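User: Some background: our group keeps a shared notebook of sequences we're curious about, and every so often someone picks one and asks for a predicted structure to add to the entry. Today it's my turn. The entry only has the sequence so far, pasted here. Could you supply the structure so I can complete it?
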Amino acid sequence: MIFVTTSHKPTKEQVLRAKELARELNLPYISRRSFRDLLKIVGNDYCYVVESDRIAVKYQGGSLFFHPSTAKVRMRNVKKGLKDHLIECLQLAGDEWILDTTFGLGAEAILMAGFLKDGKVVGLEASTPIYIVVREGLKNYRDKEDWVNNAMRRIEILNIDFRRYLVSCPDDSFDIVYCDPMFENPVYESSSMNPLRPFAVYDTVTYEDVQEMLRVARRKVVLKAHALDSLFDRIRVDRITGSKKSQVLYGVIEKR
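Assistant: Of course. Here's the predicted structure to add to the notebook entry:
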């Protein structure tokens, strides 16, 4: 059973927000007083829990919630002078408009937005549970590091499949189009990704998809894949960079 509820002993504001979310998603709202064991009610489904400072999705395997953890780690590494392969691929001037076609929990979008002074990231997320969690996180999460808060203000997220969105875009709508599909060979050691897996969209990116991305991009398309995936066997790119240790690769297609 999929439903909306709150944490224990909710405030009036939490209850109102939970009821609003239930109406938005056309799901039942169930008062937390009605049951003790949340996961027993959930069964094989999931539920949205409006907590004091966030919305989480609870399911038998765990909890999905927003946190910009890996973005912060990567930015610290960049500030130490270490190489970040994605940022190196993008070559940002600071005023770019970037389309992130596979937003997920938004760590890479936040990292990219951290290098934009006047630009913007538009993120697309087809999975409604992921979208709701991240939308609320971008709106309400406050970090001790100011750059994170500033970056999140430069991000807009939409609940839509990237193919539907791309078709609606005029030519050259964005400077850069970024695509990070779920890996064919998952890295289960990635603790930040594991809660997302039950809700992610696992569509394969095709040659036709990439051609549409190139139509929409003014400068380049950047694709991400695991070294053992088939993406760069199927899609021709101008150059590939990445980490031998993590086996995460980024492929760049320059707009001609």
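Suggested note for the entry: The chain has two domains: 3-64, 69-254. Residues 12-25 form the longest helix (14 residues).
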